[in-house]
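F.,

This is the one I mentioned.
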């Protein structure tokens, strides 16, 4: 029986860069003609990846500033991110560095991500020239520590499958590394002796030699031999 692994992908980026088109083109295998702003869309699909069945959950997050406080609530459950920008908007690429990665890291620390350049179809069809060249996207991906850089085109129906397959692989690799680290830690904890064992095996009682008893100099100089202390004190009080 094939093993089932759950992978959650978070899709983030500025509003209108093509996130929803990316998700729908992959899960429903069709191109959206009309863009509708997204608050939070959830997509789910089962697919085969190598020898595994992957339960793929995709969260298509709104890029609107109105949801800055709500959007990160889904991040702790996310294994890998697709951080998107538009190839015809240089500002959206700059926001990857200044907005989206800092938001992710503030919520969950470092997570693997794929840098995705969307809307290459507008440039392919001749309607607009590229604001971001492929070399620039690859350079940014390397600088920011992305797993990979991918460009997508709705007209050519290219790049969508590549994005998600890379994301799934990155998520599974990350899960495996986490599980291995957890296993090593648990093994170290189990191998440590218990508190009782440490006490009995490594701790030995230590007794310092008792100091020699001394007598007050006043009493020792005045006390005659074989005179009781009571008698001496009475005599001493009479003398005073």
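My design for it:
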């Amino acid at each position: 029986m094939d093993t089932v692994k759950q992978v959650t992908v978070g899709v983030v980026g500025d509003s209108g860069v093509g996130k929803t088109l990316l998700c729908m083109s992959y899960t429903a295998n069709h191109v959206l003609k009309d863009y509708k702003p997204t608050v939070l869309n959830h997509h789910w699909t089962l697919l085969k990846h190598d020898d595994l069945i992957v339960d793929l959950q995709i969260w298509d997050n709104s890029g609107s500033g109105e949801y800055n406080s709500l959007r990160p609530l889904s991040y702790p459950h996310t294994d890998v991110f697709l951080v998107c920008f538009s190839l015809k908007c240089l500002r959206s690429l700059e926001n990857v560095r200044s907005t989206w990665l800092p938001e992710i890291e503030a919520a969950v620390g470092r997570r693997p991500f794929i840098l995705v350049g969307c809307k290459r179809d507008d440039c392919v069809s001749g309607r607009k020239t590229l604001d971001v060249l492929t070399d620039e996207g690859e350079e940014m991906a390397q600088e920011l520590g992305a797993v990979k850089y991918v460009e997508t085109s709705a007209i050519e129906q290219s790049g969508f499958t590549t994005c998600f397959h890379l994301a799934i692989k990155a998520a599974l690799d990350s899960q495996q590394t986490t599980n291995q680290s957890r296993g090593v830690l648990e093994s170290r904890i189990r191998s440590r002796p218990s508190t009782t064992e440490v006490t009995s095996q490594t701790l030995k009682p230590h007794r310092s030699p008792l100091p020699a008893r001394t007598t007050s100099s006043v009493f020792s100089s005045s006390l005659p031999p074989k005179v009781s202390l009571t008698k001496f004190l009475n005599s001493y009080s009479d003398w005073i």
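The helical segments are 19-27, 90-108, 120-124, 134-144, 160-191, 195-202, 217-222, 229-239.

Talk soon.
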